[in-house]
Specification:
The protein is of the alpha/beta class. It has a single domain, classed as Metallo-beta-lactamase, Chain A (4-Layer Sandwich), CATH 3.60.15. Helix content is 25%, strand content 27%. The protein contains 7 helices and 14 strands. A 6-stranded mixed beta sheet has the order 1-2-3-4-5-6. Helix 3 crosses helix 5. Bound molecules: ligand L3IBWBLD and fe (ii) ion. Fe (ii) ion (FE2) binds next to loops.
């Protein structure tokens, strides 16, 4: 991947993937979907890669884990980013088709609502990579039964804004629960068991997923609406998160 410094990191508790995207020339970097309890790991990795963190971004207001974006700002001086439509607090807000400049890299923000209203997919056209958050997962997609979820919206977002990319784009989601690490537009067009169906069949599948609510939803959403805690891996905050105690 010429010109790009790229890492995929994993949080085993929430099965969340965090991505570091760095410009190999300027050494400026962004991190996508960091997890609060993993901020020290992420800072160490950024330093070891000789990168300077410019942005800590979220694909959406996560419901299952507390974001590390505000803690990364405290640790590194980076700016936090989320979509305007998420209504969450951050230093910078993205609208559809905005470009985030990370050194020589241009990351396109595509609005892909349906899992939440504020979901964005980040596309690095120069390297044919897309970071789909919970809109499109590997052989799956984000659930649509809370946080403004809307299966019809999600169907059109995924088909119109992600699967419309050329088939050789790699797909990197925010989660995988079966140990899979990446996919491609081609694979998801051929083999995604939900999104290869008609819109009505898709809606029916999404209405009958029968998933339990995320265990941490009541603490994650209020924290994530403010970009997470500003303290880095504070023991008391981590105990409160474990006990499902929302921020004061
Ligand atoms: N068991 C987990 C939550 C699992 C879950 O609901 N995952 C979400 C993404 S996080 S908002 C989802 O959309 N899943 C879709 C699917 O098909 O798995 C927990 O308790 O945190
Ligand atoms: Fe989510």
């Amino acid at each position: 991947m010429s010109g790009l410094v790229f890492r995929q990191l994993f949080d085993t508790t929430s099965s969340t993937y965090t991505y570091i995207i760095g410009c190999a020339v300027t050494r400026l970097a962004a991190i996508i979907d960091p997890v609060y309890e993993k901020v020290s790991r992420d800072v160490k990795m950024v330093n070891e890669l000789d990168l300077k963190l410019k942005y800590a971004m979220n694909t959406h207001c996560h419901a299952d884990h507390v974001t590390g974006t505000a803690a990364l700002r405290s640790a590194t001086g980076c700016q936090t980013i989320i979509s305007k439509a998420s209504a969450a607090k951050a230093d910078m807000y993205l609208n559809d088709n905005d470009i985030v400049k990370i050194g020589n890299l241009n990351l396109e923000a595509r609005s892909t609502p349906g899992h939440t209203d504020g979901c964005m997919t980040f596309v690095l056209h120069s390297h044919k990579l897309c970071f789909t958050g919970d809109a499109l997962m590997i052989r799956a997609c984000g659930r649509t039964d809370f946080q403004q979820g809307d299966a019809r919206k999600l169907y059109h977002s995924v088909h119109g804004r992600i699967l419309s990319l050329s088939e050789d784009y790699s797909v990197y989601p925010a989660h995988d629960y079966q140990g899979r690490t990446q996919s491609s537009v081609r694979e998801e067009k051929l083999y995604n068991p939900r999104l290869t169906k008609s819109e009505d069949e898709f809606v029916n599948i999404m209405e009958n997923l029968g998933l339990k609510y995320p265990a941490k939803i009541d603490v994650s959403v209020p924290w994530n609406m403010r970009c997470g805690p500003t303290e880095v891996e504070d023991k008391e905050i981590m105990a409160d998160i474990a006990a499902n105690k929302p921020p004061a």
